[in-house]
Amino acid sequence: MNRLSLAHLPVAPAVDPRSLSVGVVHLGLGAFHRAHQAVVTERAAALTGDTRWGISGVSQRSATVREQLAPQDGLYGVLERGNGDPTIQVIGSIREVLTAPEDPEAVVARIADPAVSVVTLTVTEKGYRAKNGHLDLDDPEIQGDLTGRPPRTVVGQLAAALARRDEPLTIVSCDNLVANGPFLRQLVAEYFDALGKVPDVFEASRFPASMVDRIVPATTDADRDEAARLLGVRDEAVVVAEPFLQWVIEDDFAGPRPAWEQGGAVLTHDVAPWEQAKLRILNATHSMLAYLGALRGYETIAEAVRDEELAALAQTLITDDVIPTLTPPDGLDLPSYGATVLDRFANPALKHRTAQVAMDGSVKLPVRLLGTVQDRLTAGAEPTTLALAVAAWMVYVHTAPTLDDPQAPRLTAALSGATTPAAIVDNLLAVDTIFPPALATSTPFRDLLITHVAALTNR
Ligand code: CS2
Fold it and tell me: Are 158 and 296 in a shared domain?
């Protein structure tokens, strides 16, 4: 069977890829970007006829993504799995693939290119290399970048490129972090502080916040076979997604940008209420279902949320513990949003693995759960179900045969010799890169955690 490419194109993308020049650099060329920003960017180009916004995608790790996309001229399918039969659409907005570890200089040069005015990022929580809310200056890769070598970290890449630019840049974080844009700006500022020089262009550059939402499970061989069946050609770069897609972006740009609003994004002056609602409702519930579901032996989120007891707990988390901490963004009804989220999780065709959502808990928990716990405690409330979610993570960390987490060594060390619920809770609460002092020393929180850990380990 032929491989998808410009020469073997069963369905044309919305825009002729050959007409696009590179105007956006995307850092973190994983499945999520391909199913999200790349789709919105292409739709915008199709509707406006503006051909300046082809994407240069940067893979931060292995060459796998390049091996998948380059032989396909950057083309790939988005396999949408909703209620009915799956559908597939070929996307052509990615015009170049760079692999950072192989050619770090090319990444800096591309971001510094005057034709590029926007950088977007999906590098996951750990890609920011922060510790306790600041750039981790003890991180060996950050230290390496600060010596002036071709940068290997995201913050290093952005800083090196900004230092070379004459025109300001807009950098749009699309990761699940609180105030992601301002946070990234602060990390880049801390990097420049450590260097002892700030380029002029930094002040005028912009770091809008953005909220992204689409469930994109890791692609499997079965998905690739399905894509081949639907397309009649092999697509090694296919990604799977649910029909739902949302992108809310703070309208704060330093220069030209794609007309993303034409592609379905919402441009607004205040992203914070959207972002808080999404992180605290969707991502928090996702993590809770991942840990509780994995502990019950469920492979997928859909199986977990179809367990009546777990579905009821997810609902209680949203209604009792999360919604009271939120201010709804204009036009969003929080209870119905919560209901939609649980419906989306129940999509059996997605096969989103609990193990995938469970990974990197040490960097996800603070963003999704711990801020809400803190708010409830401050309000004098008992965050019972939030504590259950955190306890489920604790038991998962304690029992998982292998731990996929940037802090795995520290977590394993913290738990060595801990056998009682109180010891498990106390040893993990003492991990100060996860739990801020106010939570680590909260008696009501600790008591709830011990009760839940005891119940979960008894099952
Ligand atoms: C998930 C998210 O893997 C995870 O931790 O909670 O990737 C989630 O699927 C997306 O944020 C949905 O927009």
Answer: no
